[in-house]
Amino acid sequence: MENYKCRSVGIIGSGIQGVCIGYQLIKKGVNVTLFDKNDPLSNNYKPASYGNAGHFSPYAVLQLNRPDVLNDVPKMLLSSYGPLALKWNYIPKMLNWIFHYLKNCNKKSMLHTAKYMHQILNLSKNAYEEIFQEIDTSRLVEKKGIIYVWTNKNLKSRNLEIKIRNDLGIKQKILNQKQVLEYEPNLNPVFDAGVIFEDAMHARDPHGILKEIFKLFLKKGGKFIQTDIKSLKQVNESETIVKSETEDFKFEKTVIATGAFSKKFTDQLGEKIPLDTERGYHVHFKNKDNLISRPVIFLDRGFGMTPMNQGLRAVGTVELGGLNNPLSKKRIQYIINCAKELLPQLDKHDDEWLGFRPTLPDFLPILGPSSKNKNIIYAFGHQHLGWTLGAITGKIVSGIVAGEKTNLDLAPYSSKRFN
Ligand SMILES: Cc1cc2nc3c(=O)[nH]c(=O)nc-3n(C[C@H](O)[C@H](O)[C@H](O)COP(=O)(O)OP(=O)(O)OC[C@H]3O[C@@H](n4cnc5c(N)ncnc54)[C@H](O)[C@@H]3O)c2cc1C
Fold it and tell me: Hey, how many other C-beta atoms are within 10 angstroms of the C-beta on 55?
């Protein structure tokens, strides 16, 4: 392994994971080709890495596989004004995911996920800072912290979140309503308290950042091919083949970084990985980004607002409904209502967007080789935190590809946990 040098790598998917892995591999002197059915530099490029809330959230260790959240699910589903929605036609196709989710909704799994999310979240900011040395982020990134607000209705859950973050040594400042309003005076005080993560930062334009990293990748010698990849396979110990409709491409190793769309490939490779999607939405209120100075998330509503270059982005909700159901106007209306509840001065909105969070039922990503094909490496399943984790995923996965040693415990991110 000492003198091992990987010669060529294909990466399928140029979302934030794919471009960051490509960037890190190029820095190691590997020949890299990125494939995507959409051109990251085009205005039609709209995957999750384009439309997310733009939070860099290293503090967000607790995921949705929590017993307290499970208890609230029936209540949320019965309410037409709730943060969780189902597309009933899809639920039969999601039974395996739901089965695994229920298995992971206990205190032990919750703490296991929190520990191993913390391991990588803790490194996520420095990994981006390394990339930000090489691109101009002056109009793209703001470092003003991130605020969460809540009512007193679910204090048990809020206290659990605060305690787990304290136990992991995460910096947080609890605020009463008056203190929240000192940070964000335009907010309608429909909440009782909140927390600010002062060290957190946010993107003013996630797509703009992705484009800069992608351009850096090209400048350093990376290749990009716009095509829809149909399949891939490992031919032998040192050869993988990536197939489009019309062409075959050979690489020593191939990385799957196609977010919520990755299951098609893992199914082809014969691995039963219960990847699915939590659908989320956004709208923009143009020229209203000056109403708040930093992202504000209303936890009771499962929604937030981020000041961005395109306007105030109102974003959130979880809808279980797969990749093919159309956008739900009800969910869009829900987000608009939530935004106007916090900022009644908002008026008309633009740009209705539906995006796909790639989520595994234990809410940990898969980072590492396929259990059946050691030269096919997985990098997907980052759920609500894939934007935050892009740069560190680039470092970890490029290290795996290059056969480097690491001090990190990577076993919890292996696909073997589902075999
Ligand atoms: C509403 C919403 C809000 C969010 N907010 C945040 C946030 O504030 N902070 C945070 O950290 N995370 C957030 N996330 C999560 C984050 O956006 C995702 O986890 C992350 O963008 C996933 O990145 P990815 O590179 O894995 O996938 P994607 O961004 O989905 O990229 C996958 C790429 O693969 C390409 N592709 C797919 N199939 C093929 C194929 N067959 N051939 C070629 N190309 C293919 C697609 O075109 C796409 O470009 C949010 C997500 C949503 C939906």
Answer: 25
> Phi/psi of residue 141, each to 5°?
-130, 140
Determine the residue type at 415: S
- Ligand 1 pocket residue status of 265, Cβ below 6 Å: no
Alpha helices, DSSP H only, in 294-346? 329-342
Would the CB of 19 count as within 6 Å of ligand 1? no
Structure-block tokens of residue 402: 């290059």
pLDDT in tens, the chain (419 residues): 556 788 999 999 999 999 999 999 999 999 999 999 999 999 999 999 999 999 999 999 999 999 888 877 777 777 767 889 999 999 999 999 999 999 999 999 999 999 999 999 999 999 999 999 999 999 999 999 999 999 999 999 999 999 999 999 999 999 999 999 999 999 999 999 999 999 999 999 999 999 999 999 999 999 999 999 999 999 998 999 999 999 999 999 999 999 999 999 999 999 999 999 999 999 999 999 999 999 999 999 999 999 999 999 999 999 999 999 999 999 999 999 999 999 999 999 999 999 999 999 999 999 999 999 999 999 999 999 999 999 999 999 999 999 999 999 999 999 999 98
Q: Which contiguous run of DSSP H or E holds residue 393?
A: helix 390-401
CA 300 → CA 13, 69, 345, 373, distances in Å? 34, 11, 21, 43
Q: What global pTM score does this model have?
A: 0.97
CB 63 within 8 A of CB 39: no
Domains (ranges, CATH) in the chain? Answer: 8-49+208-272+363-418 (3.50.50.60), 58-106+136-203+275-359 (3.30.9.10)
CB-based burial of residue 210 (10 Å sphere; 0-12 exposed, 13-18 middle, 19+ buried)? Answer: buried
CA of 222 to the centre of ligand 1 (A): 21
258 CB less than 6 Å from ligand 1? yes
Choice from 63, 84, 387 to test ligand 1 binding pocket (greatest atom count within 8 A of CB): 387
Angle between helices 390-401 and 107-132 (to 10 degrees): 90
Residue 239 neighbours by CB under 8 Å, 6+ apart: 250, 251, 252, 375
Distance 191 CA to ligand 1 centre (A): 31
Task: For residue 273, report the phi and psi dihedrals to the nearest 5 degrees.
Answer: -105, 120
